[in-house]
Write a structure and sequence with these properties.
The complex is a heterodimer of chains A (534) and B (247). By secondary structure, chain A is an alpha+beta fold. Helix content of chain A is 29%, strand content 35%. Chain A is built from seven helices and 27 strands. Chain A has a six-stranded mixed beta sheet with strand order 3-4-11-10-6-7, with no helix packed on it. In chain A, a hairpin with a 4-residue loop joins strand 16 and strand 17. The chains are: A alpha+beta (534), B alpha/beta (247). Chains A and B meet through helix 4 of A and helix 5, helix 7 and helix 8 of B. Chain B: Pfam families: LytTR, Response_reg.
Chain lengths: 534, 247
C-alpha cells in the first residue's frame, strides 16, 4: 500500500490542474491516500501528507496545521469499474456526503506520469482550519476494504497517560494495581511478585498516530518501544475502551528514573525539528525502585571486586589453615623422626652388652695368658667400641665404621681364631661417606656368634662396601652353617637389627634401607642396600 | 725428651709410664704429679719438653694448671677418659689428646707429632688460644685453630663459608676469600662445627647456613651461596638441610 502511494505521489506531482480557486494551488497535488490527491493553500509550507501506520491499514493521515482550504480529487485507472465506487465525507465526524457514487459525467482524463492516463474528478473543496475532514472510499465489490483519508486541520493534541498499572501474582493468580492520572514524575516500587506493567492512554480519534518509547535516564538509551495500542480492558468516562500497552517488568534492570515518551509517529519523514516535535510530545518520568537489582557492568565490576576480595579473604583463611595443618603435619613428622631417633639410641645401647662382656672376657683371657701387650691393644680397641656406643653418634664415616669393625673382629678373633676381610674399592670415598653408626655391627656379631664360631680357624667373614650407581651396598658374608632366614629368630641381634632398619627408614624416607638375608648350609649373606645414598 | 705426667689417679700414671717405656723409649719421664699444685712445682722445677695432662682431676682441670703456669715452654698431650666439653675445646685448638685406656699405637703417633711440634715451636700460641676460649664466659662466636704446615690460623666460626672434603684433607673457604687446606678429614670438622649450625649438605660438603642465599631445585637440590657458588645436596641430607635452612 505504501509503495503505491509513493508511486502515485511521484506521478501526480507533475500533473497540473488549470484553474486556481480560493488561494488553493491546484498546480501542485499531494498524495492523500488511496485514490485521493489533494491541493492546499499556496502559502502552506508544512504539509505532512498521507502518513500511514503499522497498526492501521487503509488509513491515511495528513496533518495540515497551516492549511485553510483543501481541494480533493479522486483518480481512477482506466480499467476500474468506477460505477462500483462510493464515497462518504465527514466534517468533524458529521457526514456531509454519504455513500455517493462517482458522477461519471464529470470524469476527465488526467495524465499522471508519462504514459498512464487516469479518469479523475473533484470531490470538493473544504475549509480545513480547525477541522477534521474524513473521506471514506470503497468499492461495493469489496465493501470491507474502506480507504480512510483523514485531513487533520486541528492541532494534534498531546497524549495523556490516564493510568500506570502493575500486575502481580497472588495466591489465586494475578491481580492489578493502578496509579490513575499519574503526575509527571511517578514513583513505582516493584517487588518480586510484580511482573507486568501497563500504560493506559486517553482515548482519541487518532490513537493510532502515537507511539510510545521508554528511555533509561541514566544511560539515555531507549529500552522499550511500541507503536501498537490495545483496546479492551480499560473503559473511560464515556464508556469507551481506552488504549493501553503492556510491557514486562524485566526491561527495568535496576532502580532509577525512566522516561515514558509518547509522540506522533511518521513525522520523522518530514524532518520536523525537535523543538517543533516537542509540542506534540508527552513525557512522564517513572521512578523505579527494584527490590532485586539486575546489575550493570560497572556494578558487576565493583561487586565483583568486593566478591573477589571476600573470596580472596576466604582463600587466605583456607591457605592459613592448610599452612597450619601442614605445619602440624610437619611437626608430627618431625616428632615421629625424633621418636625414631630416641628409639634408635635405645636400640644402640641395647646392642652393646652382647659384645662388651664377651670382649672383656677375651681381654681377661689375654691377661691370664700374660700377653700384656695384646691385652693393652685389645683393651684400647674395647674402649673405642664402647666409646662409640656411648657417644651414640648418629652418623659415622665408612672409615670409622671399618676401624670399629676391625676392632670388634680382632677382639673376636682372640676367641675364635677365624679369618676376616673388609673390602672397600679404591674409588669409594670411605673417609667422607657417612652411614648410621652401629648399622653393620649387629650383623657382623651374628656372623661371628651364629656363623663361624663353631668353625674355628676355618671360619671366614667377608665384609664388602660397594657402590652401585647411587646405591651404597654393604654386605657381610660368612661360611657358617646358615639358618632359616624366613623364621623369626628370637636371637636378640637379628630382631633388634630389623627393628633398627625400620626405624632408620622412618628417618630416611627418601633413601630407604633395604635388608636382604640369604642363608643356606654353606653360609649366610646379609646385604644392606642404602638406596640413593651416594 | 723429658716428660711430666699429670693425672689424679695413680693407676693411670703407672699405666702411662709402662706404655711409654715400652713404646716410646725416647720419652724420659722426669716426674709425675697427681694434683695441679704438685704439677706446678714439678713443671717449674724440671722445665719439661712434654706434659701428659689429664683434663678432669677432681674439682680442678688440666686447663687450670696451664692457666697458672704462665709462659709455656712445653708441648701438651691431653689424656682424658670421657670428657666431651674438654675434648671439644682441645679439638678447637687443634691440640693433641689421647683417650684412656691409652692405645699404644695412638700413643706412638701422639709422641711423634709432639716431637715435630717441639721442633717448630708453634704450640704455646695454641695453648693460649685454648685457655682464652675456655675463659669465655659470655656466649660469643668461637674461634677454631686451623693448623697448616707453617702456621696456625685462628678463624672465627662465623668467617667460615664452607668446607670441602678432598679425601683425608679439608679445604676451608673463608669469608675474606682465602682457601686453606688442612690435613684432617672433613668428618672431624663436621663433628666440630655441626653444633655451631653447620650442615653437612653432601658427603664432601660442609656448609655454614649463614652464607646460603637460596635453595635451588636443580639436580634435586642445590644450595646457592651468597658468592654464587653452588653446593650439591645429596639425597639422604635433603630433608635435614631444608630443616636447618628453614630455621
Amino acid at each position: 500500500m505504501k509503495k503505491i502511494i509513493f508511486i502515485l505521489l511521484n506521478l501526480i506531482i507533475s500533473v497540473s490542474a488549470a484553474n486556481a480557486q480560493k488561494g488553493i494551488d491546484f498546480s501542485y497535488n499531494y498524495a492523500a491516500g488511496g485514490k485521493l490527491l489533494m491541493c492546499v493553500d499556496s502559502l502552506a509550507k508544512n504539509v505532512y501528507y498521507a502518513n500511514v501506520f503499522p497498526n492501521q491499514p487503509n488509513t491515511y493521515f495528513s496533518y495540515l496545521p497551516e492549511v485553510n482550504n483543501l481541494g480533493i480529487q479522486i483518480y481512477f485507472r482506466k480499467n476500474i469499474n468506477i460505477e462500483h465506487y462510493r464515497y462518504t465525507i465527514l466534517a468533524d465526524n458529521k457526514p456531509i456526503v454519504v455513500n455517493k457514487s462517482i458522477n461519471k459525467a464529470q470524469l476527465k482524463d488526467a495524465q499522471a506520469g508519462d504514459e498512464e492516463v487516469f479518469s479523475s474528478t473533484k470531490l470538493g473543496t473544504f475549509s480545513i482550519k480547525d477541522k477534521i475532514i474524513t473521506i471514506l472510499v470503497y468499492s461495493i465489490e469489496t465493501p470491507l476494504i474502506i480507504d480512510k483519508s483523514v485531513f487533520y486541520g486541528k492541532l494534534i493534541p498531546k497524549a495523556k497517560i490516564k493510568a500506570i498499572g502493575k500486575r502481580f501474582t497472588t495466591e489465586k493468580g494475578v491481580d492489578y494495581s493502578y496509579i490513575t492520572d499519574p503526575k509527571e514524575k511517578t514513583n513505582l516500587h516493584l517487588t518480586n511478585k510484580d511482573d507486568e506493567l501497563t500504560i493506559v492512554k486517553d482515548r482519541t480519534e487518532i490513537d493510532y498516530i502515537y507511539y510510545t518509547s521508554i528511555k533509561d535516564k541514566q544511560t539515555n538509551k531507549i529500552i522499550f518501544e511500541s507503536t501498537a495500542w490495545q483496546y479492551g480492558g480499560h473503559i473511560d468516562d464515556t464508556h469507551q475502551f481506552s488504549p493501553y500497552l503492556k510491557f514486562d517488568k524485566s526491561i527495568f534492570k535496576k532502580s532509577g528514573d525512566y522516561e515514558i515518551i509518547i509522540k506522533p509517529s511518521s513525522f520523522s519523514r518530514y524532518k520536523m525539528l525537535p523543538k517543533e516535535m516537542e509540542k506534540y510530545t508527552t513525557r512522564y518520568t517513572l521512578s523505579i525502585t527494584l527490590e532485586e537489582e539486575s546489575y550493570t557492568k560497572k556494578e558487576i565490576y565493583s561487586y565483583g571486586l568486593m566478591a573477589t576480595f571476600i573470596i580472596g579473604l576466604n582463600f587466605l583463611l583456607i591457605f592459613q589453615a592448610v599452612k597450619k595443618r601442614n605445619k602440624k603435619k610437619l611437626a608430627e613428622t618431625t616428632q615421629q623422626k625424633n621418636i625414631a631417633k630416641l628409639q634408635l639410641n635405645s636400640v644402640r645401647s641395647q646392642l652393646n652388652p652382647h659384645f662388651l662382656f664377651n670382649a672383656l672376657a677375651g681381654i681377661q683371657n689375654l691377661m691370664n695368658k700374660n700377653e700384656i701387650d695384646n691385652a693393652n691393644r685389645y683393651l684400647s680397641k674395647f674402649a673405642r667400641l664402647t666409646r662409640n656406643v656411648l657417644d651414640s653418634k648418629e652418623l659415622i664415616s665408612l672409615t670409622e665404621e671399618k676401624t670399629l669393625l676391625d676392632d670388634y673382629l680382632q677382639m673376636e678373633q682372640l676367641r675364635f681364631g677365624f679369618q676376616y676381610k673388609i673390602n672397600a674399592p679404591a674409588d669409594l670415598d670411605t673417609e667422607n661417606i657417612e652411614i648410621p653408626s652401629m648399622l653393620l655391627q649387629p650383623f657382623v656379631e651374628n656372623a661371628v656368634k651364629h656363623g663361624i664360631a663353631e668353625k674355628g680357624a676355618d671360619g671366614n667373614i667377608e665384609i664388602d662396601f660397594k657402590k652401585q650407581s647411587a646405591d651404597l651396598i654393604l654386605s657381610i658374608k660368612d661360611n657358617g652353617k646358615g639358618f632359616d632366614a624366613t623364621k623369626d629368630y628370637s636371637g636378640l641381634g637379628l630382631s633388634l637389627s630389623k627393628n633398627r632398619i625400620s626405624l632408620l627408614n622412618t628417618i630416611y624416607k627418601e633413601t630407604p634401607f633395604v635388608l636382604n638375608i640369604q642363608s643356606d648350609t654353606n653360609g649366610t649373606v646379609v646385604t644392606i642396600t642404602l638406596t640413593q645414598w651416594l | 725428651m723429658r716428660a711430666i705426667l699429670v693425672d689424679d689417679e695413680q693407676a693411670n700414671l703407672e699405666n702411662l709410664q709402662v706404655l711409654l717405656s715400652k713404646n716410646c723409649p725416647e720419652v724420659k719421664v722426669v716426674a709425675v704429679a697427681n694434683n695441679i699444685e704438685s704439677a706446678y712445682d714439678q713443671v717449674n722445677l724440671h722445665r719439661p719438653d712434654l706434659l701428659f695432662l689429664d683434663i678432669q682431676m677432681g674439682k680442678t682441670t688440666g686447663f687450670d694448671l696451664l692457666n697458672i703456669l704462665g709462659e709455656k715452654s712445653f708441648e701438651v698431650i691431653f689424656v682424658t677418659a670421657h670428657d666431651h666439653y674438654g675434648i671439644q675445646a682441645v679439638k678447637f685448638a687443634a691440640l693433641d689428646y689421647l683417650l684412656k685406656p691409652v692405645d699404644p699405637d695412638e700413643l706412638k703417633i701422639a709422641v711423634s707429632k709432639a716431637t715435630e711440634r717441639i721442633k717448630s715451636r708453634l704450640n704455646s700460641d695454641q695453648l693460649n688460644f685454648l685457655l682464652n676460649q675456655i675463659k669465655r664466659t659470655e656466649p660469643s662466636i668461637p674461634k677454631i685453630a686451623l693448623p697448616q704446615q707453617h702456621e696456625i690460623r685462628y678463624v672465627s666460626v662465623d668467617d667460615i663459608i664452607r668446607c670441602v672434603a678432598d679425601n683425608t684433607y679439608t679445604f676451608f673457604f673463608l669469608a675474606n676469600g682465602d682457601k686453606i687446606l688442612i690435613s684432617k678429614p672433613l668428618k672431624e670438622y663436621s663433628d666440630l662445627l655441626k653444633p655451631h649450625g653447620f650442615v653437612r649438605a653432601h658427603q664432601s660438603h660442609l656448609v655454614n647456613p649463614k652464607f646460603v642465599k637460596s635453595w635451588l631445585k636443580e639436580d634435586g637440590g642445590t644450595l646457592l651461596m651468597n658468592n654464587g657458588d653452588k653446593i650439591p645436596v645429596s639425597k639422604p641430607n635433603r630433608e635435614m638441610v631444608k630443616e636447618v635452612l628453614g630455621k
